[in-house]
């Protein structure tokens, strides 16, 4: 784990041990660890400003801190994440007998209003994919990247983390490593498979491999490469998606996650079983997938209200 910047407060040893435990014992992703680190820096700095240490915290302290965050205008989701980080820290310290009690045991996490996914229409997805023109290596890569994102519902981190051994074109399957390092097998649809085959052909991925070979093994095994032959990063993949989105007239509406939303919404629109969609997307809880059923139900009601002569308006 990286060291904190010099202008940031250092974390108490108990918090550092907690972060190490999350990474090693719980297998949390590096991004999650860094988010917890930021929240806990803010929390422990706030405690220090009140002259209190982790050993002295009581429930009222934790509630006061969360109230302060909300009063500072932070988004409910940000306050909730901070609450989870602090509660899990205190739970860890209590379980490990570092502290005798858990002051966060009865502290409720803030509720976050449900945000409905903003899926593209099927016509907009087609327009996006048609915006990739040409047959040069980068065009083949971009077409494959967009087809795979929409066709499989992968998260952007899962996509750029793909290695050659994770893709089985003959079996039309790929292996994705999801949150918490949970592995799942995902089917590859016909168009996504065709775009991957074109990307793997000599005029695609092999053309971006450096003349002297890859300097790093991780680059040599990567499915998606940048123009220098290295593994494509999350930021690079994000730019690919948003760049073609702008070309397709979707500027400001498109992100990798919108393609994931669109994959799930369109499958449910066409009658897919929600459990199958849950497994495809790698959701740990069915309740996460159920968010999409609200989207499709709203669409059904709009169509019904607009078309049926005796539908009227819902109140």
Task: Give a quick rundown of the structure.
The chain is mostly helical.
For this structure, the CATH topology of the largest domain is hpI Integrase, Chain A
Number of strands: 3
Which geometry do the CA atoms define? globular
* Intertermini distance: 53 Å
CATH level-four homologous superfamily name of the largest domain: Intergrase catalytic core
**Average pLDDT over all residues:** 87
Residue runs with pLDDT of under 50 for 5 or more positions: 1-8
Strand content: under 5%
Helix and strand content put the structural class at mainly alpha
Radius of gyration: 23 Å
- Spatial order of strands in the largest sheet: 1-2-3
The CATH architecture of the largest domain comes to: Orthogonal Bundle
How many helical stretches?
A: 14
Report the helical percentage. 40-55%
Question: What's the CATH class label of the largest domain?
Answer: Mainly Alpha
Number of domains: 2
Order of helices and strands: HHHHHHHEEEHHHHHHH
């Amino acid at each position: 784990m990286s060291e904190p910047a010099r202008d940031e407060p250092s974390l108490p040893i108990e918090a550092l041990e907690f972060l190490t435990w999350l990474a090693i014992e719980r297998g949390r992703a590096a991004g999650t660890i860094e988010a917890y680190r930021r929240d806990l820096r803010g929390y422990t700095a706030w405690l220090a400003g009140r002259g209190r240490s982790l050993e002295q915290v009581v429930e009222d302290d934790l509630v006061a801190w969360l109230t302060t965050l909300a009063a500072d205008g932070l988004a409910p989701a940000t306050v909730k994440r901070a609450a989870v980080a602090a509660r899990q820290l205190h739970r860890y310290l209590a379980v490990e007998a570092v502290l005798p009690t858990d002051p966060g045991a009865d502290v409720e996490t803030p509720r976050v209003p449900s945000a409905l996914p903003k899926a593209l229409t099927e016509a907009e997805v087609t327009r996006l994919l048609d915006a990739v023109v040409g047959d040069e290596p980068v065009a083949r890569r971009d077409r494959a990247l967009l087809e795979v994102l929409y066709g499989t519902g992968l998260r952007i981190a899962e996509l750029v983390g793909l290695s050659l051994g994770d893709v089985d074109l003959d079996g039309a399957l790929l292996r994705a490593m999801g949150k918490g390092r949970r592995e799942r097998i995902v089917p590859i649809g016909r168009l996504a498979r065709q775009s991957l085959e074109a990307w793997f052909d000599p005029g695609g991925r092999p053309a971006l491999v450096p003349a002297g070979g890859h300097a790093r093994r991780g680059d040599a095994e990567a499915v998606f490469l940048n123009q220098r032959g290295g593994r494509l990063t999350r930021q690079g993949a994000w730019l690919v998606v948003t760049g073609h989105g702008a070309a397709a007239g979707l500027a400001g509406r498109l992100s990798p996650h919108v393609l994931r939303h669109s994959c799930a919404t369109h499958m449910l629109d066409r009658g897919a079983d929600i459990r199958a969609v849950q497994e495809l997307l790698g959701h740990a809880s069915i309740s996460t997938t159920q968010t999409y059923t609200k989207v499709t139900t709203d669409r059904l009601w709009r169509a019904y209200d607009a078309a049926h002569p005796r539908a009227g308006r819902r109140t």
